[in-house]
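A further point concerns the way the authors explain their paired sequence and structure data. Nothing conveys this as quickly as seeing an actual entry. An entry of this sort, consisting of the sequence and the corresponding backbone structure tokens, reads as follows:
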Amino acid sequence: MLFPLALGDSPPERSQAITIYTGWERHALVGSDVRLSCSFFSWRWISDDVTFSWTYRPDGSRDSISIFHYTGGEAYVDNKGPFRDRLEFVGNPGRRDGSILIKNLDFSDNGTFTCDAKNPPDIVGRPSSVRLLVFEKLPIQAGVITGAIIGVVLGLLVLIVVIYYLMRFLVARRVFSLNVRSVPILGGLCQGLEQRPEPIPGTDTCVAKLT
């Protein structure tokens, strides 16, 4: 049964979808700190009731545990979990940022971290997850390898272009030198050609330009 609203009551605000963003995967060294970013998009202004929640699921486990919650302007860290002394809230709710910092990483911290955000009345959205991988030494990422390959290819292309223009220059120089020929003087006359004196007397030549 539907009940009419009492006089002076306003209808509830319509909720719209909220979109949450995190990174896809983070790599970090054992003993270092890592920032896990979380932000959201909502069509509404930031509510005073905005909330952020983080959960953690270790590798090899099916269960997630709550490790952090932000509400009412206060940040709460689980005081019994694996990050009780190593988690810090570094976000800025006023800028839709709910990022956290995990300190002094250990190999046992490998796992999936999931962020959920609410900006009432926008409370419907899919949480976003980021996987943390802790290494003793960071591996070479695929992007670095791809960049190196692209650099080598570009270097080869530049070398080919340089060789091409160098060959064109040498060929043009050869053609220019062949465009001028020397012929011996006949009967002491160049017969309309330009006479070019040589260092040795009697060996002057006539120079003609070929067209």
Remarks:
- Residues 1-7 have pLDDT under 50 and may be disordered.
- Residues 142-178 form the longest helix (37 residues).
- The domain at 19-138 is CATH 2.60.40.10 (Immunoglobulin-like).
- The helical segments are 142-178.
